[in-house]
Design goal:
The chain contains one helix and no strands. The chain is rod-shaped, with a radius of gyration of 22 Å. 0% of the residues are buried. The protein has one helix at residues 2-52.
Length: 53
């Protein structure tokens, strides 16, 4: 009985690490898409700021 509960706990820990890896991957994809989509617009916006300072 004790061995089964420790096996379940290690299995849950493995599943949790996989979930965190998937979340980190998804966040990385969102960041890459955001930079690709908004990068030129933000660069142009900051390009306008120095002449006005």
């Amino acid at each position: 009985m004790h061995e089964a509960s420790s096996c379940t706990r290690s299995g849950e820990r493995g599943a949790t690490s996989v979930e965190y890896a998937l979340m980190a991957g998804l966040i990385a994809v969102v960041i890459v898409i955001s930079v690709a989509f908004f990068g030129q617009q933000v660069a142009a916006l900051f390009g306008l700021v120095p002449p006005h300072i």
